[in-house]
Amino acid sequence: MILVTIRVAIHPRGKPIKSLSQKVRIDPHNSTEELYDVLAQMSGLSIFRLRITKKSDGILVARSKETTIEEAGVKDMDVITVKDLGPQISWRAVFITEYLGPVFIPGLFLFQLRPYLYSNQGTIPEPSRFQLLLCVLLTIHFVKREYESIFVHRFSNATMPARKIVLNSGYYCVMSCNMAYWAFRPDATPSNPVLCCAGLVLFAFGELANLNTHFVLRDLRRPGTPERGVPYGFGFGVVTCPNYLFEIIAWIGIWFVSGLSWSILIFIIIGSVQMAIWARKKEHRYRKEFGDKYKVKRFVMLPGIY
Predict the structure, then answer these.
(1) What is the pLDDT of residue 264?
(2) Which of 63, 110, 112, 131 is the most exposed place for a label (fewest CB within 10 A)?
(3) Crossing angle, helix 91-107 and helix 164-183, to 10 degrees?
């Protein structure tokens, strides 16, 4: 067996990993996951806290059972950079937690908290049928997200920084409270029947199409590995990320049912901007990862627009 010497350089950002040796000898035919295991044992840290990149070009050395160190482009006497990502938490746990608040917030604002939130408005009428319907749609949407987080999604990375659970959960709770407060006000303008029916159609199509896209993405990735196949299926021939497109369609449906509430429109705009950034990055990643196998997309999220 040929052994290569890889010089390990500590990433200058963050705290240095004191117990990590400056050099390690390892078989180039070993998997990159074994390289992570060796460095984790040396450092006393979980493999999920480590991020390894090639210093020459900054490219990530992904942790994989299938890819060898040689195939990852790490050669004899190359320098790799190891960074401690800090305390980690599973992606699944973050997703489940961040959507939990929005599952209950609409119902709480519409019923239990209604007398207290709008006490300055005199006699508070019962929620309108449009508000009841809106509450149902919001709850269905986030219950669906919980279902997908538990049973559908497969993640390329097992963990993310633990602090994200506070940031993500805080964002969804604040935005959900803002939407519920303004949309469920006793003096909120109700949606007209035509707009409401259109909203229901958009919501049903968007949610079902989004769920289908998530099933497609799940089946492209083998359990327990970051490797995936080329995405294909309904919507993928038009944009890079049809799941984002269908998500926006579903939320436009909710917006229509709400009577064009500005608070829901703000949530749509903020979410769309963030998804557009993710979609552009994903298109670049697909081109790099799949090469000629991938059909380059002109639009990443919104057909004819972006």
Answers:
(1) 98
(2) 112
(3) 20
Give the type of residue at 46.
S
Give residue 5's pLDDT.
58
Helices (H), the chain: 32-43, 91-107, 114-117, 129-151, 164-183, 193-220, 242-257, 262-290
Is 77 exposed, middle or buried, given 0-12, 13-18 or 19+ CB atoms closer than 10 A?
exposed
For the structural domain made of 6-85, what CATH number should be given? 3.10.20.90
Tokens of 268: 């749509």
Tracing tokens 């890819």 back to the chain, one arrives at 67
Comparing CA positions, the residue from 68, 66, 39 lying closest to residue 51 is 39
Q: Is residue 233 predicted with pLDDT exceeding 50?
A: yes
**Sheet of 79-84, strands arranged across:** 23-26, 4-10, 79-84, 50-54
Query: Please, what sign has the CA dihedral across residues 294, 299, 300, 303?
Result: negative
pTM above 0.90, yes or no: no
Question: If pLDDT is split at 50, 70 and 90, which confidence band does 1 have?
Answer: very low
Provide φ and ψ at 295, rounded to 5°. -85, 115
Mutual orientation of helices 129-151 and 193-220 as an angle, nearest 10°?
A: 0
* SS3 assignment, position 160: strand
Residue type, 191: S
Report CA-CA distances (Å) from 153 to 142, 197, 268.
15, 31, 22
Q: What token pair was written down for 55?
A: 């210093």
User: What are all long-range contacts of 93-97, with beta carbons under 8 Å and residues at least 24 apart?
Assistant: 93/165, 94/160, 94/164, 94/165, 94/168, 94/169, 95/145, 95/149, 95/153, 96/146, 96/149, 96/150, 97/165, 97/168, 97/169
